[in-house]
Every structure is written in structure tokens, then in C-alpha cells.
Amino acid sequence: xxxxxxxxxxxxxxxxxxxxxxxxxxxxxxxxxxxxxxxxxxxxxxxxxxxxxxxxxxxxxxxxxxxxxxxxxxxxxxxxxxxxxxxxxxxxxxxxxxxxxxxxxxxxxxxxxxxxxxxxxxxxxxxxxxxxxxxxxxxxxxxxxxxxxxxxxxxxxxxxxxxxxxxxxxxxxxxxxxxxxxxxxxxxxxxxxxxxxxxxxxxxxxxxxxxxxxxxxxxxxxxxxxxxxxxxxxxxxxxxxxxxxxxxxxxxxxxxxxxxxxxxxxxxxxxxxxxxxxxxxxxxxxxxxxxxxxxxxxxxxxxxxxxxxxxxxxxxxxxxxxxxxxxxxxxxxxxxxxxxxxxxxxxxxxxxxxxxxxxxxxxxxxxxxxxxxxxxxxxxxxxxxxxxxxxxxxxxxxxxxxxxxxxxxxxxxxxxxxxxxxxxxxxxxxxxxxxxxxxxxxxxxxxxxxxxxxxxxxxxxxxxxxxxxxxxxxxxxxxxxxxxxxxxxxxxxxxxxxxxxxxxxxxxxxxxxxxxxxxxxxxxxxxxxxxxxxxxxxxxxx
Amino acid sequence: xxxxxxxxxxxxxxxxxxxxxxxxxxxxxxxxxxxxxxxxxxxxxxxxxxxxxxxxxxxxxxxxxxxxxxxxxxxxxxxxxxxxxxxxxxxxxxxxxxxxxxxxxxxxxxxxxxxxxxxxxxxxxxxxxxxxxxxxxxxxxxxxxxxxxxxxxxxxxxxxxxxxxxxxxxxxxxxxxxxxxxxxxxxxxxxxxxxxxxxxxxxxxxxxxxxxxxxxxxxxxxxxxxxxxxxxxxxxxxxxxxxxxxxxxxxxxxxxxxxxxxxxxxxxxxxxxxxxxxxxxxxxxxxxxxxxxxxxxxxxxxxxxxxxxxxxxxxxxxxxxxxxxxxxxxxxxxxxxxxxxxxxxxxxxxxxxxxxxx
Lengths: 542, 358
Hints:
Chain A has 2 domains: 1-141, Beta Polymerase, domain 2; 224-541, Cytochrome-c3 Hydrogenase, chain B (Orthogonal Bundle), CATH 1.10.645.
């Protein structure tokens, strides 16, 4: 960590360092783009993965925290860029350095009104085009009169804005077309069977060939980050299963872990084992659903039922222990809510017995099929560099040869003790993404097999103060959700509510990368690629 | 075998005994029309039920089982639902073409019924170019689909219709050529003659390898021609919601729906006619006892039974395979099926010329 600090300090004397759990650099906006370029390109730093951009409102100033990771050295750094101008806040864009930065900057613009200079597409990301105000600012007026429920259709624009700074330092805005003037634009979504939820692709096509896709998000945006700012810590947990409803357990796990670490709570080993087992069970269930729906997207409806059979069995296990089949509210601060059901271990053993048989069946029915191969092989190839730049984590990232499994890179809970392999393929196409998930089912089963006979005795939940206050500070923790890296940024001002709770979800990059992957492909490829990336819309929109 | 022409001739002479000739013919036409419509509707209902049950079996489900015993009345209930649904009229569509399209589609499949050999002598019209007529009328259907997609004024339907046009025009070649192969073998385009040719042995057995190749190609092309999976691109639900019939409702949608199932029956029926002897029972030369037993099963049962068996295979395709992509589908036709087909035709000609068949 000292080396990184030395290198940066030598090149950028203005940089202010702050030691925390990870190195934080504060830099004025004028140097930010140069620093970003150095961080990415310097061979000794090579921070090539932009984890997220956290927009912040510290009342006296607005700003962003950029979380960067080096996939080469597995080091982390945070960079803080702030501006004191609340009327026309502006920060230089880094959309030209990391592909995904463009999207994250749009999100920050949407919530904080910070304009990113030179970003080629500076529109709102989630909220409607005519929304007044920036909701995550602390002085936002949330009264319904400001933004009444509209009676008429949402206005839509074919133009996007680009902000630049001219020679005198004044910010200029000019409009640019999203599509060429005579493009044949097909609207796929928000109500469409293959978008897996209310996601909308405006697709410019030339015959069957796709020219460009413009992704519209926010149809299921609920403002969870904003809502959480008014809730106590135990209450915020209940929103975690409303993001990616198929990986509710890992998401709960992440937030619990962050809060427990901030509050200094040690949980029992039994609770940890239970959490990990639930994580892996939901991973299997989620991948089964992926296999089913993906095959259905390709037209093989029968596979859905075969895949759902396994998922159904897992849901029964969950039902017995958590009391729900979806939106599980099981993990809580200090452990888990209830103890395991008495026949949990037997049920898991029965599940482990059928999984290998089922996987073989899927291969026979689907993977080996010549039509399947033609539809998936070489379709939507995402290279390793591209995957990192787009921040596509999880199984999709690993299919591109990027070892991005958080369980291996920054192990948490009891994962270091467990013996499992990270499934990595190098083709980067839809077939690889499919097969990585098939492989992960096997690995998760392996983890479960190691744990099912060794669930330690002990209390499942430790005592936690009724009113939980966190010390002043900020924490950023990630876990491996079913679809990729899920992160929680938590900033506390010492009260019972979080000052800022930023959720970093894997589905947003997955949806953002669709445009790049589908260009030049056929309409049918959009369905294959979208399906294989396996995004969940509430996870994108939050 | 019982000859149905005895029965039909009896009706004819009975009617003409007290009617002038023009009235007799008119009455007969009306009777045939009613019988045809009834068969058509019943077959469609049966097929809907059949496909649901087969699909359910493949997917480890039960399928319809609430309405009537074993869910038998389910498709009747569905039909009534469809009949009483509102016909939604849309703005900005070409009203006339929009309404015309479903009728064209259903007309094409009804006309094709005219030449199917249901049983010995049980055929609406048996004339010397029966097969040719069949191919000609069944290609009217694509016109209806193109019109439906175009007149709906919707981008999805338009893409669906154009896909459908490309697909049907391409696969018509394969159907035509494989039918031609068999016509060449039979030496006649007359449906009755083709069936009678197979009295001793069905063509699939007597026609050597070319007949088997022709059957496989016919089955693939027939699946494509009926827009069924894995060739259901025109209505690929996960891509184009419902393709060319997205904007249709009520009975107009019902017509497309019925036509799809009836086309399935027609494709299977023609396969039966060309490869499996039409209504002809299973005969093997020399097995006289076996042949005599087979003759006890009436021809109409043979025909429908064989057609349903072939439909079962086509339904099996649909619920097993994923969908092809448009370029792959066209490549399959133009790069593989067509050359194989042409080669196969030459092979068949050689076999016929040198007489090396059973």
C-alpha cells in the first residue's frame, strides 16, 4: 500500500492521502483525469477494474468516491473527487478510460446532479426525463407536489446531452442524436418476454442486423438507497431481498457483514456456516433458474421444467427453514433469524444426490444439441479486457477468463477454509457463460457436501443491542452474489440511520454491456446474449 | 377394402332421383362443405388437446385435466372463449387487408384438404394433378401471413412476416423437390394412383435410400413450412412476442391458431400419402395372413392414425429443440437441403430408370 502511495505522491503532489481499511486518495478535479489515466495505465498500479462510483452529498460539498481494483495485484484504492459548487457541480468524466464509468456517472448525475464533463451520454439513468430535483441530495424536496404522478405519457427524447468546458472555464451543453436520423428503431421492452423484467432496449436494426441498442432502465426503480437513509440498520436489511430476488441470501449476508464489522459484532461459527450454506443453495437455485429461462429464450421450453425441478427442491428446503420461498428475510445482524429446520441436513443430502444426475440430463438434452451450439458458440464474445473495463463480474466475467470470484479474491466468512474451484472459461461467448454456471452448480454442491455433515452446534444469533448505532466512518464490503460482485458502501454519521447506503449490483454492468455485444448481431442474438448475461431488472434499478 | 365410392355414388343417385342435376350438385357441394368444416374444426380441437397433452408429458406435467374427463373439453372451452372475445380494431392499420389476412391463411389450409385421401374413395376431388394442386394452394398461406404482418402497422409483426416470407419461400423448394422425388417414383401426380401404387409395399420401404432421404427432408421442410419449432421464428415469442399475429384478437387470432394446427395435419397427411401409403394398410409382399388381418382395419383409421403419428414426431421436435436463427435457418435450406434434394432426385430417377426397386 505504501508503494502505491509513493508512486501517486510523486506524480501528483496535490493528492491528499487518508489511511483506512483501504488507501483513499483525495484529488482536485483538475488532476482527476490524469490520475485516473495513471492509475489505469501505470504498470505498477494497473487499476483496471472500476468497482463503482459512489455519489456523495456531504452537505458542505458534493462529490464522488471511485472504488478501483487491480485485477493483476489484487489491490484496492479509493479516490475522492469533490466539488463545492452546489448549483452547477461538475467533475471530469472518466468514461473514456473505463467503459462502465459512463453508466455509473449517469447514475450519479441522476441522483446528485453532478454533471460529468465530456461524458458522451449525460442523461438521467433511472428517473424520468422530466424529474425535478436530485433525490439523494440531502436538501431534496421529497413532497409529492414537486414530482406529481404524471397523467400523460412519459416524454421521450431522441437526443442526449454532452457537457464540455470551454476555454474560459464555462460549462457548455450541446445535444447529440442517439440514433441516426433514418434508423428503423424497434422498441424491445419494457413489456417483453425476453427482457426478464421491465427493461427496455431501443434497438436500431437494419433488417435483422442490430446497429445500436440504447438501454433504458428505471422502470422498477424504487429508490431503495434513498429509503434506507431514513431507516434503522436492522430495517435496511429487509430491502436486500428486493434487489436480486434470486440471490437474497448473499445480499443479506453482505449487508449484515458490513454492519457487523462496523459495529464490532462477532457472530458464532454456526451462524456463519448457515449463511454460507444458504448462499450456496441460492446460487444453485439461481443458476437452475438461469438454465431454465435461458433455454426458454432460445425456444427450448421443455428445459425450463427440468431445471425448475431442482430449484423447487431447494425452495422447499428454504421454505422449511426461512419460512419463505422467495424474498427470504433470513440473515439478521448477529446471525440468522431462526435455527435450521430439524431435517435440513437430510434435505440437503437428498438434493446433493440428485444434482449430478440432473446436470448430466441437461447436458444430454440441451448442451450437446447442434442447434444450441450454433445459437450460442461465438455469439456475444466478450474479451477479458472488455469484461474488466465493463465491470462484468460473476459467472459472465469468469466466462471471459477473468478470475473475479470474490470468494477467492477477497475471501469472507468461512470461504477460505472450503475446498472449491473457481470455474473459469476463456471463450467469452454465450456458451461459455452457460457452461460456467453449469460448472458452478457442481462447485456449490461440493461446498454444501463439505458443510452438511459439519454444521457446528452453538447459538444461531448473538445478542445485539436493541438500538444499533454505528461509529462514524465508512465501509465498503463485497460478496459473491449469484450474478457477480455485490458491494455495499455504508457511511455512518453515528446515528441510528445510515448516512449513505450505496448498493453496487452486478446486473447494471451486465445490462450496460448488451449494446457492445450485440452490435452487428441478429435480433435473435440479442435474446441469446441478454439471456446469457442473466441480469435481474430490480437489481439494476434498485 | 371397403370402397367409399359405393356410398358416395349411392348418395348421388339418391339425390338425383328426385332433383334436377344442378340442384343435386349444389346440395352435394353444401354437404361436402359442411362435412369439411366439421372435420376441420374437430381436427383442430383434437390437435390442440393432443399437443397440450404431448407437451405436458415431455415436460413432466399433467396438461389440461379439469374441464371434462381428462380435460377433453378444454379445447372446446378455449374455442368458445375465442369466439366470444372482442375483435379489437386498431387505429392506423389497413383495415381491409388486416381483416382479409386470416381468411387467406385459413382458406389455403382448407383447399389443401380437398385432395387428401381420407379413405378408399373418400376424397373430395381426385384429379390428375392432385399433388400439384396441393403444393399450389398451400403456398397461398404465406400471402396471408405477409399481409397480416404488413397491415398491422407494427414493427414486430413486420419483422415476423418478413421472416415468415423468407422461410416459406425457401422451404417450399425442399417440399416441392422431395414431393417431386416421390412423384417420380410413383409415376403419377394423381393422389389415388399414388396410393394404389403402394398397395403391396409403402414407398418408404420400397423406395430405397432416396425415399428415406426424401422423407427426412420433407419432415424438416414441413416443420418449417408450418412455422413450428424449431423453425418458429416468425412467431418467436421470446423475440417478437407473437410475430405476425401479435395484433390479432378474437376469432381472427383463432383462425391463425387453427390454421397452424391444420397445416400440421396437412403436412403429416401428405407425408402419409407419399411415404406411408395414404389410407393403404400395412402390407408386406408374401405375408398374406398378415396382410389380410391388416385389411380389417378401415382405411380412414389408417390414414388418420398415420397422420397423427407423424404429427407426434413434429410436435416432439418442437418441445425438444431450441429455435434456429434466421441466417442459420436459411443456410440450412439453401446450403444443405437443396443440394441434397437435387442429388436425391437424380438418384431416384436412376433407380426408377434401371428399375432397381422392390
